[in-house]
Amino acid sequence: MPSEVDTGKQAVFDFASMNLARQHLRQLVDWRAAIIAGVVGGIVLFVLEMLFTKSAVGSALVFPRMLAAVILGPKTVEPSTAFGPAGIAAALLVHLPLSIAFACLIAFVLHRWGLLVGVLGGAVLGLCLYWINFGTVFNLVPWFAPMKSAWTMWAHVLFGAICGGTYELLEVEKFVVETPVEGRA
User: Model-level pTM?
Assistant: First the structure.
């Protein structure tokens, strides 16, 4: 007769020690889904910001120039500076890794609760990202100051919602079994 019997539930009874050991399931983050969500949300935010700058100042390239200036230098923002496909590539080189990193944070925080919480929680975290960006980070890159607006705030909220929702739609749920250490509840 075996000393352990698996009842198919989350509890295992050990006949040898007569103890009931609880096993807990912990859900893992699907990093592949988080990365895809970051790319999708990042592209949507990039396009929205280009549309905003097109409507506000007449050029869709203002936002990509601001991003590219992070690695190419502040002169990139000036309209007299040549800006072509290499400039767009530089802008995406700045924007997409940041979008992926933030989507991974959203996935890490919200991966246990499903689509509704993914979308709503992602929206809240997108708003937090806006506050962080324009409250602190953009003091280091002052050429982003003109982007501080309600439009940009809502674009960040939408970014977070898209990342959270896309993650939840693509997530493959995986769990690991954890047995608590003796003396811990």
Answer: 0.81
